[in-house]
């Protein structure tokens, strides 16, 4: 049951990432409009900066996880290669 909760939280985290990215895009569109008051544009810009920094941190975490997974896959391939060398000597 704990694994389902973990998987669900990972999926909701990804959805949350996508929702925040969509929000950032909407803020960018809002800022580009020339008919909004300066204080609204500034508030949108500040929110956008916060979102961009949080998304960047999330991407770094994802990159680290991928690197760990890739290194584990490489280590597994190296171990089997070493075992093959020992098996052929018998």
Main beta-sheet strand count, sense and barrel state: none
Helical run tally: 2
Mean pLDDT: 80
The total beta strand count reads 0
Q: Which geometry do the CA atoms define?
A: rod-shaped
Distance between the termini: 45 Å
Structural category is mainly alpha
Instruction: Name the beta content range.
Output: under 5%
Rg from C-alpha positions? 23 Å
- Helix and strand pattern: HH
Low-confidence stretches: 1-5
Q: Helical percent range?
A: over 70%
In short:
By secondary structure, this protein is an all-alpha fold. Helices cover 91% and strands 0% of the residues.
Write up what this structure looks like:
91% of the residues lie in helices and 0% in strands. With 90 residues, it is mainly alpha-helical. It is built from two helices and no strands.
Set down the secondary structure blueprint.
Blueprint: H1 2-32, H2 38-88
Keywords:
single chain; 90 residues; mainly alpha; rod-shaped
């Amino acid at each position: 049951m704990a694994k389902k909760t973990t998987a669900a939280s990972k999926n909701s985290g990804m959805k949350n990432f996508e929702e925040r990215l969509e929000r950032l895009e909407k803020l960018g569109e809002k800022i580009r409009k020339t008919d909004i008051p300066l204080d609204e544009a500034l508030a949108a810009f500040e929110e956008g900066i916060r979102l961009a920094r949080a998304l960047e941190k999330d991407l770094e975490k994802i990159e680290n996880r991928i690197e760990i997974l890739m290194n584990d896959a490489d280590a597994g391939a190296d171990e089997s290669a070493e075992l093959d060398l020992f098996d052929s000597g018998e």
